[in-house]
Amino acid sequence: MSHENETRPQVTIPQLRAWVAEGRKLVMTTAYDSVTSQLSDAAGVDIILVGDSVGNVCLGFENTLPVTMAMMNHHLDAVARTKPRALLMGDLPFLSYHLSIEDAIRNAGDFIRRGAAAVKLEGGAKRLPVVRALVDAEIPVMGHLGLTPQSFHAMGGFKVQGRAGEQAVQILEDALRLQDAGCFSVLLEGVPAELARKVTESLEVPTIGIGAGPHCSGQVLVTHDVLGLTQGKTPKFVRRYVDGFGLMTEALIRFSEDVRNGAFPSTAESYTLPEAAAQALQHWQSSKSDPE
Ligand code: KIV
Fold first, then answer.
1. What atom in ligand 1 is closest to the CA of residue 187?
2. 184: pLDDT confidence band, cut at 50, 70 and 90?
3. Rounded-to-integer distance, Cα 106 and Cα 24, Å
């Protein structure tokens, strides 16, 4: 188990490249607040993504479409304040890079000013001008292909992409184009493992997979999924490493019982009143009860 954060150097994009060249798999998790950031960093993950999945994971939305830049900045700030050693990446939300290139640079630049070292955006060929402009503005970009949650309506829901030959070729072509446009990495979500392998072998930049099989250069999962905090049905690619929801509910049940039966707080969990203050209280009470 790794808790070596104090001695770990700050993770940079050249460092990620070097690790991949050495054959080391990259690890990425999501964080939306200081707790999930500190957990991820204490575990020694390489990349922390402040994902727009904050919408469905933390804010109760059904998908990521309602998430705005203001929401993202709020969560990115909370994560950035913990100064993680992992590379901090901000996820550009729906409509933050679709309206104009100027708007995209302003929004991505906002993430960088707040402490992110890179941004992620969804889409292939249509996004190339934006990717080029961001890279020109010295903003490192991770592309995101396959099941792109911001295309929820266009895809007709969360569906595995790239099963049809034409779509598979499109994803491979888009990945190559994103690399040419300057992306330092491409995230592949919800695609068949063999397609992700083909993309990974065809690119020089690393791929990060989620529901994309074992052949990518690295893997990402939503931290709340890894910790078993997510309720309801999760996709088959999610591996829960602990029943966090069960453990935490159990702790809260025990707290409730202790409060109700008087076992909490104990003397050791309470502050004592100094003698002088006790006497002052006593004196005040007596003066109130004394008839004038
Ligand atoms: O927002 C998010 O959590 C993502 C996942 C694919 C990691 O983009």
1. 6
2. very high
3. 34
One DSSP character per residue, 129-179 reads: HHHHHHHHTT--EEEEEES-GGGHHHHTSS-----SHHHHHHHHHHHHHHH
Residue 189 annotated among the catalytic residues of the structure: yes
Residue 1 has pLDDT above 80, yes or no: no
Q: For ligand 1, is residue 218 a contact (CB within 6 Å)? A: no
Task: Compute, in angstroms, the gap from residue 26 CA to the centroid of ligand 1.
Answer: 15
Q: Which of 182, 181, 186, 219 is closest to 202 using CA atoms?
A: 186
Q: pLDDT (tens digit, 9 = 90+) per residue, 37-85?
A: 999 999 999 999 999 999 999 999 999 999 999 999 999 999 999 999 9
For residue 8, the CA-to-ligand 1 centroid distance in Å is 25
CATH for 4-226, among 3.20.20.60, 1.10.260.40, 1.10.357.10, 3.30.460.80?
3.20.20.60
Q: Which residues pair with 47 in a beta bridge?
A: 28, 87
> Does 3 score more than 70 pLDDT?
no
Q: Which of 210, 224, 230 to mutate to test the pocket of ligand 1 (most atoms within 8 A of CB)?
A: 210
- Please say whether the beta carbons of 238 and 225 come within 8 A: yes
Give which of 17, 18, 136, 36 is closest to 76, Cα–Cα.
36
Going from the Cα of 189 to the center of ligand 1, the distance in angstroms, rounded, reads 9
Q: What is the DSSP letter of 242?
A: S
Residue 271 phi/psi, 5° resolution? -90, 145
Q: Which of 6, 189, 201, 269 is catalytic?
A: 189
259-283: average pLDDT: 98
Domain boundaries, the chain: 4-226
Centre a 10 Å sphere on the Cβ of residue 165 and count the other Cβ atoms it contains.
8
Distances, alpha carbon 132 to alpha carbons 5, 128, 184, 191, in Å: 34, 6, 12, 25
**What is the pTM assigned to this prediction?**
0.94
